[in-house]
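FAQ

Q: What does a record look like?
A: Structure on top, sequence underneath. For example:
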């Protein structure tokens, strides 16, 4: 049995699998899983520091196969794509060779797809030949018994008990001068005649049913991964519909047959195999997610053709207001002229423009926080009522658990904290009347823009003093209900650091003026000095971009006059180190900054609503999230009505 010295892998899920599979092994067989990118100089050095100096018997590697595969960027519409004419992934094997050069293990094994034999470099040499030559120059032999010319093995996984017909290329080299004896197959193709089967193959190829046929059937559905209890209840209801085939749709037969005729014989054979029973229409299921992805909650605007419906409703309202009709072209031109004049006038009205901007900001915040199921623009379209003094609130919200309420959005941009937001009786009563007609609560969402702070206040909790309703930011924070939308305050250790690593193959020498131009060769993120990886990097980067820490320091690392790396370090201006952490902001505030970046990309307000959907905003933090390297403190602030 080998004692594994270390494993290097940049994919978080793969690292978690390695850790889980080896966690129960005896201590002498446990090994560190280095979750990092081997192309980074710092990672390369770290690996050598951990295992350098020891005699390594065997080193196994598998460079990414995407650029070599014959069903990826080397086929179809990708063939002439400039991005893949000089694919940097072709040369990732160089990282493996570089590590072999440092460690000089007795044996090396490298595995990849069949396409690595045919993919060639700019000089017309197959990459497989380049790899073999690079390792031979280090003293490795690839001689194979019975194949004096071939220096690699081409093995079919099915011939060794794997329930899948899959050919793979293996390089097996050694520095001991030994010849490799190919592993004899243990399984045979049942369609091969007895006389042509290998004597060592005792069993027929396994089928997938042989391997997992005893497992219970699994229905397609959303999984519970990273979902809150409220989200799970909602999606579990969706699961029931999907399992009953509620989203099953018949194929468009003409398109299907056109597609069928363009397929290869193998493709036609597959569709012939899975076709429906005689007399039954061929059907398919709409694609569905298997889990909610981090940072994306799926919230989108429902598709509605604004150029047909909204513009018609608006034009009709303008015509009514000006005593016009849609009888002829002349009348229609007059309607369009009135619409143009109105639009030009209102775009010059800052109060109107920023009011609409703030309303849009709230809709994105509410959708991105994670606990809102529906956000509907309420004050749009026609409303008919006997109470003509009613005022329609800005939004109707439905949150996880089924609660529904109306929200009126306000923006307070004056100097804080002494200023108060005041509501006139007529304004307040007109909104309450509309909410009462639907038997739904009314709430006010106030954006205190100087503080980048959102508060959500129930109408019945607004203070009534001296004949008017008014509230200041401190009192609003006390009875804030933003938590029902999923808002929380986030804190972590100080500082957060972005490190840019200089590409060692490019010049980065310090000039006489103290400047060093360099090409970025890698990026690393740190929290309180701990290097981050995987999902922690996403969270840290989001907080660095949109959190409220503002203190920025830059630290260069030099090797003589050569720039090695540059750190961007952020921290709060004031914090208590003894506490061990510092607040970096509220989720709603971070989403608001992200919204601002999308609507005001270069300091000039260009959009009222971002082009991206609300589901692309914010960052998902799983309920059970734990990390030793990026510890988070999450505070959910409940309203205090006392």
């Amino acid at each position: 049995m080998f004692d594994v010295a270390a494993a290097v892998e940049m994919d978080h899920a793969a690292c978690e699998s390695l850790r889980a599979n080896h966690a129960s092994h005896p201590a002498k067989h446990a090994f560190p899983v280095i979750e990092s990118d081997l192309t980074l100089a710092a990672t390369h050095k770290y690996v050598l520091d951990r295992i350098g100096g020891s005699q390594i018997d065997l080193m196994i590697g598998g460079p990414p196969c995407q650029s070599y595969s014959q069903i990826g960027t080397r086929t179809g519409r990708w063939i002439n794509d400039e991005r893949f004419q000089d694919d940097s992934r072709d040369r990732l094997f160089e990282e493996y060779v570089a590590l072999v050069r440092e460690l000089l293990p007795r044996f090396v094994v490298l595995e990849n797809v069949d396409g690595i034999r045919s993919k060639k470099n700019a000089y017309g040499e197959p990459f497989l030949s380049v790899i073999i030559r690079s390792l031979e120059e280090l003293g490795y032999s690839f001689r194979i018994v019975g194949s004096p010319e071939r220096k690699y093995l081409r093995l079919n996984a099915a011939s060794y008990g794997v329930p899948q017909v899959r050919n793979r290329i293996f390089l097996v080299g050694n520095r001991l001068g030994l010849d490799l004896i190919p592993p004899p197959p243990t399984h045979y193709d049942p369609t091969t005649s007895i006389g042509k089967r290998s004597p060592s193959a005792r069993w027929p190829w396994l089928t997938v049913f042989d391997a997992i046929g005893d497992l219970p059937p699994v229905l397609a559905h959303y999984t519970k991964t990273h979902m809150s209890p409220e989200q799970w209840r909602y999606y579990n209801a969706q699961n029931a519909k999907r399992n009953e085939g509620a989203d099953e749709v018949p194929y468009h037969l003409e398109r299907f047959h056109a597609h069928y005729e363009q397929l290869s014989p193998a493709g036609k054979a597959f569709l012939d195999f899975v076709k429906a029973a005689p007399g039954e229409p061929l059907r398919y299921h709409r694609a569905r997610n298997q889990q909610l992805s981090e940072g994306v909650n799926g919230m989108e605007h429902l598709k509605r053709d604004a150029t047909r419906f909204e513009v018609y409703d608006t034009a009709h309202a303008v015509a009514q207001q000006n005593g016009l009709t849609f009888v002829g072209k002349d009348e229609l031109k007059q309607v369009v002229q009135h619409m143009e004049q109105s639009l030009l006038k209102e775009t010059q009205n800052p109060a109107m423009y920023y009011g609409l901007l703030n309303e849009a900001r709230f809709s994105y915040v509410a959708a991105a926080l994670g606990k809102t199921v529906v956000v509907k623009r309420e004050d749009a379209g026609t409303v008919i009522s006997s109470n003509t003094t009613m005022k329609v609130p800005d939004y109707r919200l439905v949150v996880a658990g089924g609660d529904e309420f109306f929200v009126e959005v306000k923006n307070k941009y004056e100097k804080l904290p002494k200023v108060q937001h005041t509501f006139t009786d007529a304004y307040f009563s007109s909104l309450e009347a509309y909410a009462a007609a639907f038997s739904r609560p009314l709430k006010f969402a106030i954006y205190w823009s100087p503080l980048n702070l959102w508060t959500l206040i129930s109408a019945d909790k607004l203070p009534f003093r001296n004949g008017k309703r008014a509230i200041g930011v401190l009192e609003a924070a006390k009875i804030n209900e933003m938590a029902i939308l999923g808002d929380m305050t986030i804190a972590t250790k100080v500082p957060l650091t972005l490190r840019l690593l200089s590409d060692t193959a490019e010049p980065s020498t310090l000039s006489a003026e103290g400047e060093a131009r360099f090409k970025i060769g890698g990026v690393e993120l740190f929290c309180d000095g701990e290097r981050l990886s995987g999902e922690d990097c996403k969270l840290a980067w989001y907080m660095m971009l949109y959190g409220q820490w503002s203190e920025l320091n830059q630290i260069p690392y030099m090797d003589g006059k050569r720039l090695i790396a540059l750190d961007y370090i952020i921290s709060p201006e004031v914090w208590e180190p003894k506490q061990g952490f510092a607040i970096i902001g509220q989720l709603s505030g971070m989403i608001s900054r992200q919204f601002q970046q999308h609507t005001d990309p270069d300091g000039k307000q260009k959009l009222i609503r971002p082009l991206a959907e609300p589901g692309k905003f914010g960052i998902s933090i799983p309920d059970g999230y734990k990390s030793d390297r990026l510890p988070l403190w999450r505070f959910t602030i409940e309203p205090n009505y006392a």
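Q: Is there anything notable about this one?
A: The chain is about 30% helix and 20% strand.
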